[in-house]
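Practice problem. Given the sequence and the SMILES for nicotinamide-adenine-dinucleotide, write out the predicted structure.
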Amino acid sequence: MVRIGLLGCGNIGHIIGQYRENIEIIALYDRVFQKADDMAITCGGIACKEFEQFIKEDFDYVVEAASVNAVRLFGKQVLLNGKHLIVLSVGAFSDPTFRDCLTETARAANRKIYIPSGAITGLDNLKVGRISPIHKLLLRTTKNPVSLGIHCDERRLIFQGKANECIKEFPRNVNVSVALSLAAGREADVELYADPDVDRNVHEIFCEGDFGEIYIKINNVQSPKNPATSYLAALSILTLLKNLDNPLVVGT
Ligand SMILES: NC(=O)c1ccc[n+]([C@@H]2O[C@H](COP(=O)([O-])OP(=O)(O)OC[C@H]3O[C@@H](n4cnc5c(N)ncnc54)[C@H](O)[C@@H]3O)[C@@H](O)[C@H]2O)c1
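Answer key:
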């Protein structure tokens, strides 16, 4: 069993709780205490009112499924308290100063920071970008306006630019653009479309390098309780946790 502390008891937190086959949830923390308390009743674990109490409990991994701000607020304390950190709100790493600081803290504490594939696939081999040049890396994301918290009657380009700028405007919608940038070792370009005719979260990845070209299209089913979040993202956390101790490592 993998012993985890759950930071964020929302949509993804609930899916983790629902499919916790090889996972023991030891402690739960949410800024809305009632959410942690409700989950503790069904999934077990201690619901904590304070983060300081949560992080002292006896578990090995913090699964962050809260927000970019939560990673900024608590990331360092997680590592300094001897826990590994699994991050879904990857947007926090768009700030290079914060990213370097947290990475150094992890190194000094001999802990790891894991970034799961989340709502996309293909992060594994994009890491070739650190060895052999990647000339183009573009993420085209299309979501229903409701997921983006806006209204429009027809397909509209609402952002075009760099990943680190896009995440500032849409911290709950384009975490994958920062994950792509981290994997490839170069900042991704982003086109974000709102389209009232789509009921999926669609991510298209265009990549060109010395190796050739990649095109990946992911049509994500939305999570039932949060249309901004793809169901695949929750499944990717579960997959990561399931394979942590597996001696046969596939696709890194
Ligand atoms: N990497 C990816 O591919 C990917 C995909 C989907 C979602 N995400 C990110 O994962 C996170 C969770 O997604 P979700 O759908 O479960 O969101 P959600 O809004 O349903 O749940 C988030 C929970 O975290 C809590 N929370 C937020 N900030 C907090 C803080 N500072 N301290 C403590 N608790 C806090 C909220 O109260 C809420 O209960 C979001 O940041 C989302 O953008 C990443």
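Check your answer against the key. The pocket of nicotinamide-adenine-dinucleotide is lined by residues 8-13, 30-32, 35, 65-67, 69-70, 73, 88-90, 118-119, 172, 175-176, 179, 223, 226, 229-230, 233 (CB under 6 Å).
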